[in-house]
Design goal:
The structure is a single chain. The protein is an alpha/beta fold. The protein has two domains: about 120 residues, Urease, subunit C, domain 1; about 290 residues, TIM Barrel (Alpha-Beta Barrel), CATH 3.20.20.140. Helices cover about 40% and strands about 25% of the residues. The strands form two sheets. Strands 5, 6, 7, 8, 9, 10, 11, 12 and 13 form a nine-stranded parallel beta sheet that branches. The longest helix is centred in the first third of the chain and has 17 residues. It binds guanine (GUN) and zinc ion.
Amino acid sequence: MTSSLHAVRGELLHFTADPEDAGAAAFVHHHDGLLVIEDGHVRESGPATALLPKLPADARITDYRGKLILPGFVDTHVHYAQTDIIASYGEQLLAWLEKYTFPTEARFADPSHAGEVADFFCDELLRNGTTTALAFATVHPASVDALFDAASRRRMRMIAGKVLMDRNCPDYLSDTADSGYVESKALIDRWHGRERLLYAVTPRFAPTSTREQMTLAGRLFAEHPGLYLQSHVAENRGEVAWVAELYPEARSYLDVYERYGQLGARSVYAHCIWLDDADRQRMAATGSAMSFCPTSNLFLGSGLFDLDRAHALGVRVGIGTDVGGGTSFSMLQTLNEAYKVLQLNGQRLSAERAFYLATLGGARSLYLDGHIGNFATGKEADFVVIDPQATPLMARRMHNATTLSERLFVLMMLGDDRCVAATHVLGEIRTIP
Ligand code: GUN
Ligand code: ZN
C-alpha cells in the first residue's frame, strides 16, 4: 500500500500564543523543519532530522529548504466586491461609499460578473498567502453563492454573507428588513457548515439599516448555532456623528449593535478606532472581535487603531486588509502599515506579534483556532511558503539581518506577493511555485 503521507521541508515558524503575553515561548521555530501532512491535516511538525527517519520510504516530500513556511494568513475583514475599486482617489469613508463603492457593488446583480470577480478574488488571496477570509459580499444573494462556489472549488476556508442594507443607500442596492432576513436564511441553509464554508450575518453598518432590520439581523445571529456576524464600527468621525443622530438613544456607536443583539462570540467588527474603554470592555466581555485594518485606515484617513488598549482590556484582535478601502491584498504589506499606524500612536508592533496576529491571532478572533492558525497536530494544513529573498533589495537586506526577529521584520516591511513562493490549502499546492 502506498503512503498517503506528504511532508514539506523548510524553515518552519508558527505560534502557540501571543508573543506580547508569552515572549519567546509563544512560537515554535525550526531552521530545518518538517511538516508532515495526512489527509489535508497536520500529522506532526518538528525538526527534519528527527522526523525524516520516521517517514515511510515512499512518503512524498516537497523540498522548500531556503524558504520560510508559515501558517496560511487569516484576513479578518475584506470586501470581495470591491476588488475593482481598490485604489480609488480622493475621498473619506462616506463620500467614498457613494462615489465608488455603491456603483461597483451594483454590478453584482449580474451573477456572471460576481462569478468572475469571485474567482479573481480567491486567486488573489492565495497568491498573497491568505487561506482564510471573513468577507463581505453585496446585497445580492447570488453574490454570496458566487463567492462560496469559488472558495469551495479551491477548498478554502471562507466566511461570508449577504449585505443587509435597507436605508441610506441607493434604491438599486436596497433590500428590506423582511427580504434581507428571508434571503439570509436561505443562504445559511445552503452554505453554513458546508465543507469549509461558514455564514456571517452582514449588516453593512448601523446607518444603512433600519431598526427593524437591525432587530432581524440580531435574531438571525441568535437563531443559528455557529453563525458569524460582521459589520463596521467607529471607523470615521463623520460616520460616528451620523450614528449618534440616527440612534440618539444609544450610549455609543458600539452600543447600537449591543442593543440589537449583535455582540458576542463570532461577531467581528472592522476598524474600532473611535471607541472608548467602556466599548472595549463590552467587546471583551461579550467575546466580540476587532479587525484592525491599517491600510484602509490610512488610505481613507480614518484614524489610528489603539492595539495597546484593545490588548489591555482583553479584546480579540485580528488583521484585515479591508480591500477596497484597504490598498493591498498582501498581509505582509498590511503588517507593514500596522507597524506605522502604531508608531503614530506611540505603540510598538514586534515582528513576532505581527505574524502572530496574521495567523493564530486571526484564527482566535474568528474562533477557528481549533482548526487553523498553527501547525499543531490535527489542524488543517493551510500554509504559505515565503521566499525571504524575493527581491534584490530583500536579499541584500536579509544578509544584514541576523536574528529571526530581524528577518521577520524585514519581511513584513519589504515583503509583498513577490515573496509568496507557494500557498497550500489542506496540504495541496494552490499556486504555481
Ligand atoms: N462602512 C460601511 N461600509 C463600508 C465599506 O464598504 N468599507 C469600509 N471601509 N467601511 C464601511
Ligand atoms: Zn470594510
